[in-house]
Specification:
Strands 1, 2, 3, 4, 5 and 6 form a 6-stranded antiparallel β-sheet that branches. The chain contains 20 helices and 19 strands. The N terminus is likely disordered. It is globular. It is of the alpha/beta class.
Length: 583
């Protein structure tokens, strides 16, 4: 066996001593080496910490849903599905501007009725209006614990504000302003109304709530909230704009949302009309197609008008595809654009004119021009004439006509090809109707904005087993109970957004959750509802049915506001959203 002797060499003699060679070795190190060693240890510690942080982010991060993240992502996603210039039949709802565009306070219209200032409401109380001196003065006058609470006492409003901040701020509610408290139905009760915004809705629209509070004197002459009613329980604080009614009428006064102004703007005088530049689309093959295709095409036209710096002519009469009403089965013409979309916001976001008003003025001023100074019109018979070719056209009216066969007569064909690089669809201009969003707010408010939701797609897709072979079984009552109990804690408020027509289909889930379905809230569009009165006024006094698209729109928006969201094609079934081999 080879032996190695411990022979001292010159190299060993010149080498620095080992840290273990003597107790004083550490103290013999030069100061520069100590500094380098400390810096190295600190850098290594930061490196380890960075690795841990990156690891945690990699494990927990979920990429944003392209359907909710931005309008650019939505445009890209939809463009990828339109290679054959056609939409698949569908009964879903596209996200609109309030779901896509982040709130930008610099864009809030100061004088808009959709965002009125505090000064425009005479009895509005700003959050900073009650000073400490006022509260102290009120406290000194009414510090008797046996004295009934006075709702006009500034301490009442401060107690309500403090309670709301503690109870609702974590539920995505941002409080904007308060009205003056009103007496409740009993001594010690006050009804308080406020305006708020939901953080999950990327718009500046305001909503109202009014609740009944039971208050009692607390320690040190304070007032405390001992009980609060549910959503919109404080009826004495509710104020709405009454509909005009003849004094002899025996029917009850009906109310409207005072913050909705979707009146039709007028063009003006002859000179104003002739100074304007208009882009007019006649009806094409998109008419009576799915609402998703309608939005995609409508925003193409609006985008072209903005590119050409022209006013877009909007036809408020739209056709609802029969796909949204399978029990009816027919397309429904004559639907008002304002039933589904926020016309007031559209007027504020883009230069538009209503079609009937535009055509009336066009005929009138063109007929009166006896001097030969007719309104100049250029007809554009095909989508193949690109927006870039029309950029320098000086005609008063550019009249795009869509008379060819499908899909040549689809509006969105204008924005395909090279035009896609120039035309930006203004997604921020399209919001869902404030009337529908009021229903969404009421449903979420009834659940105190503290709920989870599941989207259960069934209907015709569940019946088509060639394209979705597992969907029916994966969304059966037993399968839903098995999967949902693993995803959502028991006895939570569970909202089910679904196209399943049978109300009792989800009864087995009621043994595990507080189940809520859209049909549980029928009173919100019933004959005595705010929505019913407002849409009937838009419809010339005729009642408007709450159709399938409205149901899907409300379902979708309630789903977006849930704390936990379970999707059919991500969580419940093995099938792909668009069928076999499309994942």
């Amino acid at each position: 066996m080879t032996r190695y002797s411990a022979v001292s060499t010159d190299a060993d003699a010149d080498a620095p001593p080992s840290p273990t060679s003597s107790p004083s070795a550490a103290s013999d190190l030069p100061l520069s080496q100590k500094l380098i060693k400390v810096i190295g240890n600190v850098c290594f510690s930061f490196f380890v910490l960075a690795v841990l942080v990156v690891t945690v982010i990699a494990v927990t991060y979920q990429p944003p849903d392209p359907w909710l993240s931005s309008s650019a992502a939505l445009t890209t996603s939809l463009s990828a599905t339109l290679q054959n210039s056609t939409f698949r039949p569908d009964d879903s709802v596209l996200p609109t501007g309030e779901d896509l565009v982040p709130l930008n306070s610099s864009l809030i219209p100061v004088n808009s009725s959709s965002s009125p200032s505090a000064s425009s409401v005479p009895d509005l109380v700003d959050s900073s209006s009650t000073t400490a001196s006022e509260e102290a003065a009120a406290a000194s006058e009414s510090c008797d614990p046996d004295k009934p609470v006075n709702c006009s006492d500034p301490r009442v409003l401060n107690a309500v504000k403090a309670f709301n901040q503690k109870a609702f701020t974590r539920r995505s509610i941002i409080f904007l302003s308060y009205d003056i408290p009103m007496p409740g139905s009993k001594p010690g009760e006050c009804d308080v109304a406020w305006r708020f915004r939901n953080r999950k809705e990327k718009s500046w629209r305001r909503y109202r709530d009014y609740r009944r509070f039971r208050l009692a004197p607390g320690d040190n002459c304070t007032i405390e909230v001992s009980w609060v009613g549910k959503f919109r329980s404080g009826t004495n604080a509710a104020k709405s704009r009454p509909r005009t009614q003849s004094p002899a009428s025996s029917t009850p006064v009906k109310v409207l949302d005072s913050e909705i102004n979707d009146t039709i703007p007028t063009v003006g005088s002859e000179s104003e009309f002739k100074r304007g530049k208009y882009l007019y689309y006649t009806r094409g093959g998109d008419y009576c197609k799915s609402m998703n295709q309608f939005i995609w095409s409508f925003l193409c036209g609006l985008g072209e008008a903005q590119f050409l710096n022209r006013t877009f002519v909007v036809d408020l009469s739209i056709c609802l595809s029969g796909a949204y009403n399978p029990w009816y089965g027919k397309d429904e013409e004559g639907k008002d654009f304002r039933f589904y979309f926020d016309f007031e916001h559209l007027k504020e976001s883009a230069s538009i004119v209503e079609e009937e008003e535009f055509l009336r003025d066009w005929r009138r001023w063109d007929k009166k021009s006896k001097s030969g100074n007719k309104i100049s019109v250029r007809k554009v018979p095909t989508y193949k004439v690109t927006p870039m070719q029309l950029k320098k056209d000086k005609s008063t009216v550019l009249w795009r006509q869509f008379d060819g066969p499908e899909p040549e007569n689809y509006w969105y064909r204008v924005c395909e090809g090279r035009a896609a690089k120039y035309i930006q669809r203004p997604w921020q201009a399209i919001w869902k109707s404030k009337r529908l969003m009021n229903i969404v707010t009421q449903i979420a408010g009834k659940m105190e904005w503290d709920y989870d939701a599941v989207h259960v797609v069934r209907g015709w897709k569940a019946q088509n087993k060639q394209v979705w072979p597992n969907l029916d079984a994966d969304t059966s009552p037993d399968a839903l109970v098995d999967k949902m109990t693993k995803l959502i804690p028991p006895w939570r408020n569970l909202y089910i957004a679904t196209n399943e027509p049978f109300y009792n289909y989800f009864d087995k889930l009621r043994s595990h959750y507080k189940v809520h379905l859209l049909d549980d809230y029928k009173e919100m569009w019933g004959a005595n509802s705010e929505w019913y009165n407002e849409t009937m006024e838009l419809n010339g006094g005729k009642p408007v049915p709450f159709d399938g698209y409205m149901r899907v729109a409300v379902d979708t928006e309630v789903l977006y506001r849930a704390k936990t969201r379970v999707e059919t094609f991500n969580n419940l079934t093995r099938d792909c959203k668009d069928g076999i081999n499309t994942c």
